Amino acid sequence: MNVKIDTREKFQVITLLDKSFPVNMTDEMQDLLLSCRAGAVKNVVLNLKNAATVDLESAEMLQQVQQDFYDQGYSFVICELQPAVETFLDENEILEFLNVTPTESEAWDIVQMEEIERELLGDEE
Description:
Elements: E1 3-7, E2 11-16, E3 20-21, H1 26-35, E4 43-47, E5 53-54, H2 56-71, E6 76-79, H3 83-91, E7 100-101, H4 104-124
Helix pairs in contact: 1-2
């Protein structure tokens, strides 16, 4: 699995460089994504702009990872899906459960807004 990791102040951008996201990469990607929570920067933007195909098991893993991030109080946003991947996720009723944005910049905005929201809600407790 080939990925590029770019660490920012509030989040990490992980870009899958491979043209597909097959089932045999699922465990490795899950381990990578979940390991991000151990570092100082725990929010993740996953850029799938290069992936022309995604297997169902990989898509289901992304849904589980996203839920795990939110359960732990961190953000997980997927961006730049290819049209065929977006259609596949929609047809398999997974897209509606994912936090997806058209651009990486919009994903950054979501992470930053969620960080502010968590800070404000934390102050109210």
